[in-house]
Amino acid sequence: DGTKVSDATLMEVLLMNDFKLVINDTAYSVSPPVKDKLSSEHATEMEDIKSLVHRLFVALHLEDHQIRKERELLQKLDHLKGELLPLEQMKARITDSADAKTSRLLWVGLALMSTQGGALAWLTWWVYSWDIMEPVTYFITYGSAMAFYAYFVLTKQDYIYPQAKDRQFLHYFYRKSKKQRFNVERYNKLKDDLAEVFKS
Predict the structure, then answer these.
(1) What would you give as a GO molecular function for this chain, any one (predicted)?
(2) Which of 7, 95, 162, 172: CA 20 to 30 A from 49?
(3) How many CA atoms lie within 13 Å of 6's alpha carbon, on the beta-carbon side?
């Protein structure tokens, strides 16, 4: 009747109902004989035999299956490693560059803070007095608090130094990746596939 049937469909299932068989444009009506219902004892014996046959089949063919599967996985592993190697080298270069820029930024921040501290000390003890410099330091502190609050508003994170460093590293990393046409999504997918193969 135009219904598709899987290769794995058992003949018992096909013979449960009447059907038409078409051979060389000739249609034959097929009415399979009605099967007697098996007794529960006979059905249990049949199930035991099926189970035994299945266990024997697995025992005899399991090693071949495992060897074939292992060979497939090793080929896939080699293929993935071959694809990942140039990406790993490019990622290492980008990571080194982003790490160097992040470290430079941290050292510049330290230098600016040191310069600011020195300038405030010089102005306080040699040029002016504390009475004049106190409001200046207050506004510098207040401005720093505003800058940290602006950071929180923009990033939805507290200004914690390790997190800020990681954020800056990722910023440099993605910018450099875009410039060098390094496909981060493809790299991550290949790494996930590799981990899945190792797991298998």
Answers:
(1) calcium channel inhibitor activity
(2) 7
(3) 4
Output the six-digit token pair for 167. Answer: 């954020």
Instruction: Say which residue the tokens 């038409």 belong to.
Output: 20
Hey, what amino acid is at 182? F
The strand pairing partners of 19, in sequence order, are 30
**pLDDT tens, residue by residue, 87-120:** 788 888 888 888 888 888 889 988 998 998 899 8
